[in-house]
Amino acid sequence: MRFDLHIHSRHSDGHADVKDIIKAASKKGLDGIAITDHDTMKGCAPAQKYVKENKLDLIVIPGVEVTTSEGHLLILGVSELPPKGRSPEETTEIAHDLGGITDVPHPFHPFRHALWRIPKVDAVEVYNSKHLFGIANARARIEAKARKMPMVAGSDSHFAETVGMGVTGIDAESADDVIQAILAGKTKVLGRRTPPKFFIGNTVQHIYGRVFKKP
User: pLDDT-based confidence at 185, cuts 50/70/90?
Assistant: First the structure.
């Protein structure tokens, strides 16, 4: 089964409504998605409701991309929003208390609020489809493999058109099954690179902001 575990909607900085995301996921033959907006879970419940009301065969995993004291950290399988601004380790402890797991996204990407290290988390995103050259992905995979950590993939999609470009293969029938499979390392990393037109503008804007930001 195919899951995209890293998707942003209009509830944060994405450009698509959760309905459009779900339609795109279904059209592309995905079996499940995780809505992982920045520091908000407002898109999760509407996504689950839409799937249920329309009797769609799609698993929606509640999630969030939390801003820690060092960078971004994905949390999957929680129903309550964890606080931001804590260390990655403390955020992971909070996620566990809430019944979820943590996944460090794009850990070595220079323009994605990376942690620049892989802390003690539950999984590592070793394939992010928005990596232009793939070097950061390769570095994440090498370190995760050396440390025998579970590996996952995600599209980091901000558009409906790019949903499903980063996919994790998991044998699961529910959101809880997905969480347990990740913890057990029973995953397969799949996907293809997002066309640059969908993210190069954001990258340039990020660089400009860092170079010319006010002291």
Answer: very high
CATH of the domain at 207: 3.20.20.140
- Under 8 Å between Cβ of 34 and 4: yes
Q: What is the mean pLDDT of the chain?
A: 91
CB-based contact 117:126 (threshold 8 Å): no
pLDDT value of position 199? 54
- pLDDT of 100 over the 90 cut: yes
How far apart (Å, rounded) are the C-alpha atoms in residues 45 and 94? 21
User: How many folded domains does the chain comprise?
Assistant: 1
Question: 55: domain range?
Answer: 2-212
